[in-house]
Amino acid sequence: MSGLVLEGVSKSYGSVRAVYPTDLTLADGQLTALLGPSGCGKTTLLRMIAGLEDPSSGALTLRGRDITELPAHKRKFGMVFQSFALFPHLTVLGNVTYSLTISGVGRTEAETKARSLLDLVQLGAFAGRRIGELSGGQRQRVAIARALAQEPEVFLLDEPMSALDAKLREDMQVELRLLQQRLGITTIVVTHDQREAMTMADRIVVMSAGRVEQVGTPQEIYHQPANAFVAGFIGKANFFDAVAGPGGVRAGDVMLETKAEFHPGSAVQVAIRPERAALDHAAEGNTVSSKVTFVRDLGPVREYHLDTPVGVMVVEYAMGENSRTYKVGDTPKLWLPPDALLVFAVDQPHQSLVAAQ
Amino acid sequence: MSLVQDIGLSRTKDAARKPMISRGTLLRWGLALMTLGLCVVPFVLVFAISFGRKIEGAAWVWDFTFENYQRFFVGAMWPNDVTFLYLQQLGYSFWYAVIASCIAVLTALPFTLLLTRLTRRAQAMWLVFILSSLSLSEVFIVMGWDILLSNNSGLPALFKSTGLTQWLKDVGWFQTLRDWGLANPRNVKFKTSDFATILTMSYLVWPYAVILLYPPLSRLDPSLREAARTMGASNWQVIRTVVLPSVRLPLFGTTLLLFVFLLGTYVAVTVFADPSKHTTAVAIYSNVRGANLNAPFGATQAVILLVSASFCLVLGHKLNQWAEKRA
Description:
- The complex is a heterodimer.
- By secondary structure, chain A is of the alpha+beta class.
- Helices cover about 25% and strands about 35% of the residues of chain A.
- Chain A is built from eight helices and 21 strands.
- In chain A, helix 2 (about 90-100) runs parallel beside helix 4 and helix 3 packs across helix 4.
- Chain A is elongated.
- The termini of chain A are close together.
- By secondary structure, chain B is mostly helical.
- Chain B has helices spanning about 5-15, 25-50, 65-75, 85-115, 120-135, 140-150, 155-160, 165-170, 175-180, 195-220, 220-230, 235-245, 250-265, 265-270, 280-290, 295-325, and strands at about 55, 60.
- In chain B, strand 1 and strand 2 form a beta hairpin.
């Protein structure tokens, strides 16, 4: 079911375009991640959804109801801010009951509900604490409980993990996803961390320079990136320039077979994920000579940095995936499977209007 | 020569080269003397003079009598008669200072809130303008308000010439103004009145209120207000439930500072307040330089005013500490 629909929503600050006209349809109960580098317009888009910024053009509808002109305090969208924005003058319980008190819910009822929400985020014992007495992870949980207290129709999170350390971030990603699935609430998360987006989201909206580059499931985004930007931003990729030819691409003297078809003679950019390439593979064709220049053993994965005729490449093996090991100076054959080669036209136009559904 | 003898000789030479008093010590002593001379000595003198005695028809002499303090609290005729004239003056000092400081802070708060939402450039321009207004002396400001509120050339004349006075009479509000002491039978009047006194005093300290409130309000995380908005709070509810509680300590501190500053206001009270409602500051001037020429009693009033202000500051500090502990 179409929950929240954005039609041609854009935002300009004077002559600066922060968000180009964007069409998105966010299904009910799904978790969508707005993913992109800093300054790509993802937070501005979220703020427009929350009603904290007025769109310069376009319309927002929630289950068929136009909410474009509806002020933030009448939208019933729970929001978790990057800084958590917890009220320092209130206790944990006071923060969670805030929206209920504002809407006129009786004190006893508000406190009962707030306590059940605090139990949900495993902070039941911290109700009487001041905000200053909590750790980063606890503050985040309070912010989540507070935003959920008003039973929002849409749950918005603006970089909710950015203030947490790496370990806690990983744990909270899983916890937040489980909580969202349990409550079945339509959720939008803004993040610049592709791991975070891949971990939590049903769908990812990749943004760059105010435009939507691609919308899809995490697997679609990773394995079928719409353009070189998405391929480079999501996960790791080796890139090299080539010229399209019949049935493949030519990079220097090397002819490589690909699945993608381009007009022969046009300039293209080719990408391949490090884990999709292989060394000394039994397959015939699509191999290039290489020389190992650096080996990086990260424990669960081992990376080989190679000099090849098409440029510097990185090949990655998971632990136990390949029993043979290489050392600096070895010259294995590098196999680039045709179906793993992602080919993008150079100067590919932005895919600015993409529907999520 | 042995090594021990060598070291001993070297130490003796070092000691000979070292000055008796180091530069740091000299600087510390200099600063201490300056502080003593500029701050402590005048206060000690005022304190000492407060125990002096006025010679009728002449000047005053050094003495050690509590007559001045007794006169301040229970009047000169005690124990035969008790008057609280000077306590009443102190009361008016507090009354004007409390009301004016509260009005200044309450009006400066929304202005400063709006100021923090302007662009950096606009904020800087406003702050420079407000800071420059602080260079105006109290005398100059009071003179301006004196003209503005004077019966013949100021607002009352404007009221009359534009027909506003007649309109007030027609709708029946003129009598209310008369009841409040803001009108005579013919026209509105602002001199002399509590209204004019408090208005001018508030105006005097309003720029200070803005300057003092600007840092905490500009540091207030805008996402706090936005979070409240997303939770259903209207603009007024955001101010009442988020902004005011978040800056309650700076608000209290600013009010306290302005209050203490206003306790010593002299010119505005002299010009605008009814003589029966003159403050301790005005009485001090009358005793020291004015008609009474009773420096010891003026000094006594000054000491009591100072102690009262100090008491308020200490009380405020304690309240602040208590509130911080609670937060």
